[in-house]
Amino acid sequence: xxxxxxxxxxxxxxxxxxxxxxxxxxxxxxxxxxxxxxxxxxxxxxxxxxxxxxxxxxxxxxxxxxxxxxxxxxxxxxxxxxxxxxxxxxxxxxxxxxxxxxxxxxxxxxxxxxxxxxxxxxxxxxxxxxxxxxxxxxxxxxxxxxxxxxxxxxxxxxxxxxxxxxxxxxxxxxxxxxxxxxxxxxxxxxxxxxxxxxxxxxxxxxxxxxxxxxxxxxxxxxxxxxxxxxxxxxxxxxxxxxxxxxxxxxxxxxxxxxxxxxx
Amino acid sequence: xxxxxxxxxxxxxxxxxxxxxxxxxxxxxxxxxxxxxxxxxxxxxxxxxxxxxxxxxxxxxxxxxxxxxxxxxxxxxxxxxxxxxxxxxxxxxxxxxxxxxxxxxxxxxxxxxxxxxxxxxxxxxxxxxxxxxxxxxxxxxxxxxxxxxxxxxxxxxxxxxxxxxxxxxxxxxxxxxxxxxxxxxxxxxxxxxxxxxxxxxxxxxxxxxxxxxxxxxxxxxxxxxxxxxxxxxxxxxxxxxxxxxxxxxxxxxxxxxxxxxxxxxxxxxxxxxxxxxxxxxxxxxxxxxxxxxxxxxxxxxxxxxxx
Lengths: 263, 307
Fold this sequence. Notes:
The complex is a heterodimer. Chain A is α+β, with helices and mostly antiparallel strands. Chain A has a single domain, classed as Immunoglobulin-like (Sandwich), CATH 2.60.40.1930. Chain A has six helices and 14 strands. In chain A, strand 13 and strand 14 (210-223) form a beta hairpin. Chain A starts with a helix and ends with a helix. Chain B is globular. The two termini of chain B are 31 Å apart. Chain B has one domain (2-140, 156-291). In chain B, a hairpin with a 4-residue loop joins strand 1 and strand 2 (10-13). Chain B is built from ten helices and five strands. Chain B has helices at residues 14-31, 36-45, 50-74, 80-106, 110-142, 175-192, 197-208, 212-237, 243-265, 269-292, and strands spanning 2-5, 10-13, 163-166, 171-174, 299-306. Chains A and B meet through strand 5, strand 6, helix 4, helix 5 and helix 6 of A and strand 1, helix 3, helix 5, helix 8 and helix 9 of B.
């Protein structure tokens, strides 16, 4: 080991010691493992439950662990911008009269816990840590401003309701199961229309209403096979795609006239 | 068996869509129409967004009208000169329609305009058809003779300038109404996802006095070209043509049309027109219901951009 290496190690040890002194005496570490980091969506894909296993370990040997823990896992899909439109009756028919744009919000949001998040920690803590559907940041464009609103905002409420109905946003207080007081299992439900891209998994460990540890993981959803090829072609080469679609229509039409020719 | 539609972005039962293709194909074969005015609403009712439905049905109609056009071409029942004139205007109409479609989508009013137009168009056309066939039926009951339109009768359309002679149809009319009809059919087709056969045929008969021998064949050629160009334009500008959906519909449609044509030949023309009128009217009413009845959810979502 070089002199510089030894020095770096000594500094690191000193820092760790200093950190240890400022931390509470009891400290935990989370170790998690995901069943599958890559999900391929094919034509037969009807949704899948991924499984995340994990254990709560003492940060240093021989530190005591607490009796009861709570776990909240937040899975955030790739960002997208959506418009929420509100209908009103105008001259007897229902018309879109107002709309709000939700800018760069998660296309998938799973909030998975072992009991309802409101029971796990006080509202103030949940808001600070952005835990739960009421506390995630959903930026809206209001005129020229970009801001999140209060949880009771009608557009925000409607947006979350619609996303929940479509299966994109989920809040499950039963998805986390403690197999032993320190070993847990998390079921991450992915719907059939799960958007492709990178998903961030944020695991937060609570005890007595406070955050005691957190860790991250990630997964990737890829569309595989023919469907993805078609979708890519339609977006990247619209004109060629259109010409091919038209040619296909003509071919089928011609084929029909040949097969069913009666004279 | 579920299949995932790549552009509509939702899984559907392949047999349901195939069955819809067959059913609409049967009806279109029976009445000699494209069936877009039935197919687009059906797709909307099973949850496909109106925009994707309109764009995908265009290619479906292109396929079924090509089958029809080939058959009529073999029977020399296509007035190619008239078709070309209608087409030149039709393509301009389609392009304007696709432009309006894109604009309406941007301001979130596309669904409303599609709904309202369907109600207006289908109710009016449905009522006219029902009325005419009921009148004819009553006349037949009374044993009286139908008042035949005098073949030489002229209306205001024949007073317009720029007259042209169309040899195959044996008519001599102004180019202005021909262009007007072509443009409006192309326009309506692109915005509403209908081939317009059920509008074009009566227009050609009433305004231009095109004889029955060439009217359906010519209308088929017109539908074929406007819908083929609408497919390409919708794909190039809005990226909304779902080729997988269209393919299933086409296969069902082409097969269904053959059986429909058989059934249609065994039915009386007036009875056939009454049925078609009732069908058109019913679809119009279904759209009216959607617009008037309070929706389950006042809020809807639309994707603007994804990363």
